[in-house]
Amino acid sequence: MRPTARTLTALVGVAVLGLAACGSDNSGSSSGATTTAASSGGATTAAGTTTSGGGGAITESFTVGSGNFPESVLLGEIYGGALEAKGAKITKKLNIGNRETYYKAIAGGELDLLPEYTNSLLSFLVHQKDPKGSPTAKNVSEQVTELKSILPESLTVLTPSTAEDKDVIVCNKPTTDKYSFKTLSDLSAKAGEITLGGPPEFATRTPFGIPGFQQFYNATFKTFVPLEIGPPIVDALKANAVNCANLFSTNSAINTNGFTALTDDKNVVPNEAVLPLINKAKANPNVTAVLDAVNAKLNTDGLVKLMVEIEVDKKAEADVAKEWLSANGFT
Amino acid sequence: MNVFSDTWNWLTDSANWSGPNGIPTRLWQHIQYSFVSLAIAAAIALPIGLVIGHIRRGASIAVAVSGVPRAVPTLGVLVLLFRYAPVQLWPAIVALVVLAIPPILANTVVGIEGVEPAVRDAAEGMGMRASGVLFGVEVPLGLPLVVSGIRSATSQVIATATIVAYGGLGGLGRFIIDGYSTSNYGEVWGGALLVAGLALVAEGGLALLQRRASSHRAPGAERRPDTVPVGQQLASMQHPIPTGGTP
After folding, report:
1. Segment B142-170, tens digit of pLDDT
2. Residue B4 is inside which H or E element, if any?
3. Does the distance separating the beta carbons of A4 and B62 come in below 8 Å?
4. ipTM reported for the complex, 2 dp
5. Closest alpha carbon within chain B to A224
6. Which of A4, A21, A228 has the CB atom closest to B80's CB atom?
7. Which 8-state DSSP code applies to residue A281?
């Protein structure tokens, strides 16, 4: 009977472990869909205080949307909050879904304003016209020009910020301690000793993928480990199961784990500057002035810090946006 | 450009049949992951099941408790363990072992416990020791159910071993995950078909084994009683009129 009791305990133990697994699965981001709280500052038109937005009062109403990931929600909150401080009536429909979904909504007139990224939006629009096409623009200003010509009449983009959320290769501390990599060329010189992690599509993707590395940097890595971009890759870097891996440049884990983001010295990765996609009819000089002022204050490092507050300190996007707006004189 | 032709093209493209990401390599990895997980699960569940079934106490509790891990999401176990051991195989093996134990354990307990009391009493009355009763009588009689437990664990493990690829490792799940992330649905379907095919082959093999396990006892006992071990003679008592034997 004794072995029985013991095995029962063991089985229960296994069960509890498993249940714990379900429990902790849940704890992820709980940013609900569609933030409905219309305005916490109310319509009390930025009571006379001079804000760095400049320009006059805004009388239009805006429906602000965002993609379904925290950074996009944050940027939606920031754009919306800055306009609201100037008197605009803001309805938030954040956390909508992927680009296919929210682009349809803004093109159909259900949304007026969205935070976007230059290359992602441009690639999406080019693909819509020609599934085999790819953007010709290389840098941000070319991307903006191409965007303005490809967007439908009703939509336009404004001046981009210097904040970028693009693909980067980051290396963990043991690796940078050993090799002191700074650029992708440095990494490529030692590629034969490096285990690289990346999303599965990295194995076949070009220019930023294994074939691109071979073509542009003449690098062949020791092994490639396909992992989901985000926490699985971060865990693998932390455990030194991979030396370097593909992450997005604003991922808070880069900061908090002492990873080093390598410079793309041959400009293989297209720029992904943050910029507003807006209903052209509502983009009057006052509105443009406010959003330009916001974009002038946004940069990649600043965005990473805000993402640390959201992803590590678990603050709500709306609160982080509110603090940023007031710290930068918009409210 | 439909999913059938995409799948057919992927499966028949010779480039997909060689190299470290080729079908043979991934298939062999998949078999290895499945076999190791099943072997560990059997090594844990069979002895426990045999003992509980034999002593006939706590059997209902054991069956109930062994059902609990069935509710455990294998992906949950895997994700939790991968956090601490990224890109290692053991988290996946643990998750698959947890998946495989319940069917083996429950069927073993039920199979052994379900042997007719009269048969056991007779064996004990003949002076057989506990181990003799267990391995000479109960195991041969309970074998079809035991094998059926292993069989259902096998198909579950083979189908679920696709999640190993989630942790950056190999196996046939690689095709499903890689195909999905590159929008190559021919590859996704091809990978899924290979998994299903492997599960069916294993299932078929074990079904044959199960048939042999259930048929080898009684008819033999009828034909050559003098050479048949006591256990099998006793076994034949359970089915005095064997379906396949001479009446």
Report:
1. 999 999 999 999 999 999 999 999 989 99
2. helix B3-12
3. yes
4. 0.75
5. B168
6. A21
7. G
